[in-house]
Amino acid sequence: MKITYYGTAAGEAWPGVFCACNLCREARRLGGKNIRTRSQALIDDDLLLDLPPDNYLHTLYYGLDFQKVKALFVTHSHSDHCYPADLELLREPYTHTYPGQMQVFGNDAVEKKILDACHGLGGEKERFLFHRIMPNETVNIGSYTVTALRATHAKEETCLFYRIEKFGKSVLYAHDTGALTEENLATLHCFSGPLQLVSLDCTQQSKRDGKYHMGLLDAAEQKEVLLREGLADYNTIFVVNHFSHNGGWLHEEITERAAAYDMITSYDGMEISF
Ligand SMILES: [Zn+2]
Ligand SMILES: [Zn+2]
Ligand SMILES: [Zn+2]
């Protein structure tokens, strides 16, 4: 199994679209892994997580190949995770080669945003099919078993994060959420075996949060919770991801600090096989 991180920033991107604070200026000057676009990740070659404004950029520069993507799971409707204008192009005459119907999963707010962007159902029936998914619901798609979990995030909608399993290996992709809840842990306990990879929110880096996002100390605590609960073990790979310029640490500094907790820091284009 493989996860590819295409976008690793919070909503404003880093450097921020409209920001020239010290951390954004420094990111522009240093470049490389300090340049972070907005949230998107791919499991193997065909299960995509989120559809940000930088979607097209990811196809141009990081090899995201939509000819292989069969299913898209959107976490919530915030624009760094759901910017659905591109889906309007998923039909003739804008593409002549997309092979079949993309299966799109998300909550009711995501459904409304996507259908508004695509001017109703006109193109939907041709090239994608929307499925509303609820917290604690599991769906099977191809070789994958995907479970939605309720995120501790925006109150205006039921934000989700996902557990993805394939051939007995599993990933927890938990971004735009605070600390894991009892409900989350109970859902995760419905499945056997430890998670192989856990990707945790680290938007606030140097600051504590736990109620909307997480900082590094929050993420480290959640790692301990998962180990204590037996949902992860000492072979589990832990990644911190989804970073904001408000968190205070450029790539090199967060990498060093996360390594102290035996966690990997994501960067745009990072690929991990496990
Ligand atoms: Zn976000
Ligand atoms: Zn900034
Ligand atoms: Zn959000």
CATH topology: Metallo-beta-lactamase, Chain A
The oligomerization state is single chain
In DSSP terms (H or I, runs of 4 or more residues), the helix count works out at 7
* Biggest sheet, spatial arrangement of strands: 6-5-4-3-2-1-14
Largest sheet: 7 strands, mixed
Structural class, from helix and strand content?
alpha/beta
Give the helix proportion (percent range): 10-25%
Report the strand count: 14
Q: Rounded to an integer, what's the Rg over CA atoms? A: 18 Å
Describe the structure.
With 274 residues, the chain is an alpha/beta fold. The chain is built from seven helices and 14 strands. The protein has a single domain (2-266), classed as Metallo-beta-lactamase, Chain A, CATH 3.60.15. Residues 10-11, 39, 78, 80-81, 176, 242 line the site of one zinc ion (ZN).
Task: Summarize this structure briefly.
The protein is α/β, with parallel strands linked by helices and 274 residues long. The chain is built from seven helices and 14 strands.
What is this structure's SSE topology?
Layout: E1 2-7, H1 22-30, E2 40-43, E3 47-49, H2 55-61, E4 71-73, E5 102-106, H3 108-117, H4 124-127, E6 128-132, E7 138-141, E8 144-150, E9 160-166, E10 169-174, H5 182-188, E11 197-201, H6 216-228, E12 237-241, H7 251-259, E13 264-265, E14 271-273
This protein binds zinc ion (3 copies).
One zinc ion binds next to loops.
